[in-house]
Amino acid sequence: MAITIKSKSEIEKMREAGRLLALVHEEMARHVRPGISTMELNRIGEDMIRSFGCIPSFLNYEGYPASICISVNDRVVHGIPSKHEILKEGDIVSLDAGLIYQGYHSDAARTWAVGEISPEARKLVDVTQQSFFEGIKLAKAGNHLYDISAAIEEYVTRYGFTCVRDLVGHGIGTSMHEDPQIPNFRQHRRGVKLQAGMTLAIEPMVNMGGWEVRILDDDWTVVTEDGSLSSHYENTILITDGEPEILSLPQ
Ligand code: MF3
Ligand code: CO
Q1: For the chain, domain boundaries
Q2: Ligand nearest to the CA of 70
Q3: Distance CA 192, CA 214 (A)
Q4: Which of 81, 84, 103, 188 has its CA 20 to 30 A from that of 143?
Q5: Fold classified for 8-246
Q6: Rounded to the nearest whole angstrom, what is the distance from the C-alpha of residue 64 to the centroid of ligand 1?
Q7: Using CA atoms, how far apart are residues 176 and 236, in angstroms rounded to an integer?
Q8: Ligand with an atom nearest the CA of residue 57
Q9: Looking at the predicted structure, is the pLDDT value of residue 143 above 90?
């Protein structure tokens, strides 16, 4: 499928989808603390999405059984919330959420510390978030898609961490996953030329150890092969002729 360029009215809807998703993340973040179950965080996120009249886009996506992907410690992405999984001091937890507003998707992920975490874990979380911002410095019309990929990996590698290679960012719009795929590591080609009106979900997944991952027997949860910690940070952005607009951060 070709990469879509969004019209002004489509961009308005993507903006609103992103603004609402940022509020969902703020609300979930307020509840991240030792003792809460991942199921409870899922409920808080899903309730807020529905309170806006939006649809939780992850629920039933290819059979995924929840609205928020919650991935603790060595879980990379797509963790399934459970009432038996209780957050504890020192954990890192990634919350990945998506919603549909008037037919338009937004997708964003944050990784939070649960209470006090180790300095190494703090560094991993901070570097992951910053790698997103390093990547999108290159995200403007006229540059090439894989400029973003290379910038993310270059930054992450500087700190001795690795970028997951099996999962990628993506175009987004009337579907959660549109073309193009957006790897978080250097490519041998330059990729398509970026154009104003493209909407992209940029989402570095960064491991403390090796980049290799595997999937648990639940067929969803992606974990690091070596058991090392993993962090995730994602926003839906709009390509413009100047700085990109980050749609899923608080406006
Ligand atoms: N946020 C994920 C992504 O960026 C999608 C979640 S998978 C789902 O691709 F099954 F939970 F929807
Ligand atoms: Co995504």
Answers
A1: 8-246
A2: 1
A3: 30
A4: 103
A5: Creatine Amidinohydrolase (3.90.230)
A6: 9
A7: 10
A8: 1
A9: yes
